[in-house]
């Protein structure tokens, strides 16, 4: 669950991601191609049973922070917390428009079918591409 202080903790979350033993911190450079590196690391480990859903759930907030920061560093924008019925959501606002990369990352880990983990990069680019097309 996301807390109201998520945005203040983004640097800590990203540091946590860089300290995970199955990811190379040098590859996590906020280039959009680094999302493919994450997929190419996480998906095979998950498919082999080396990583569990519990492992992936534990890194969901660090991955949300990393994906959002990757977007902001490449395209601009800023984080904003919104509250709806007592639940908090982090969104990215750019040029008066908003997108929810958070939902994409959470959906990737929480709503997969047939024990096959979806691609973080595919979800990220689907959201980012739609964001670019908004008028």
Tell me what the structure shows.
It is built from six helices and three strands, in the order ααααβββαα. The longest helix is centred in the middle third of the chain and has 16 residues. It has one domain: Four Helix Bundle (Hemerythrin (Met), subunit A) (Up-down Bundle). It has a three-stranded antiparallel β-sheet with strand order 1-2-3. Helices cover 51% and strands 13% of the residues. By secondary structure, the protein is α+β, with helices and mostly antiparallel strands.
What features would you highlight for this structure?
single chain, 135 residues, alpha+beta, Four Helix Bundle (Hemerythrin (Met), subunit A), 3-stranded antiparallel β-sheet
CATH hierarchy, class: Mainly Alpha
Can you tell me the number of structural domains? 1
Radius of gyration: 14 Å
- How is the CATH topology named? Four Helix Bundle (Hemerythrin (Met), subunit A)
> CATH architecture, please?
Up-down Bundle
Q: Are there runs of 5+ residues with pLDDT below 50, and where? A: none
**Average pLDDT, to the nearest integer?**
80
Q: Count the helices. How many?
A: 6
- Structure classification: alpha+beta
First-last Cα distance? 31 Å
Strand order of the largest sheet: 1-2-3
How do the helices and strands follow one another from N- to C-terminus?
Answer: HHHHEEEHH
Share in helix: 40-55%
Largest sheet: 3 strands, antiparallel
Task: Tell me the total number of β-strands.
Answer: 3
Binned strand content: 5-15%
């Amino acid at each position: 669950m996301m807390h109201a202080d998520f945005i203040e903790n983004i640097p800590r979350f990203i540091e946590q991601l860089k300290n995970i033993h199955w990811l190379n911190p040098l590859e996590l450079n906020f280039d959009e191609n680094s999302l493919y590196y994450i997929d190419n690391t996480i998906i095979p480990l998950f498919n082999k049973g080396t990583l569990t859903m519990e492992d992936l759930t534990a890194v969901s907030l660090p991955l949300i922070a990393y994906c959002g920061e990757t977007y902001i560093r490449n395209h601009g924008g800023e984080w904003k917390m919104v509250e709806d019925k007592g639940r908090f959501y982090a969104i990215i606002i750019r040029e008066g428009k908003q997108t929810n990369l958070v939902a994409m990352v959470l959906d990737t880990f929480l709503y997969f079918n047939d024990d096959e983990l979806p691609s973080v990069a595919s979800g990220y680019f689907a959201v980012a591409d739609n964001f670019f097309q908004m008028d």
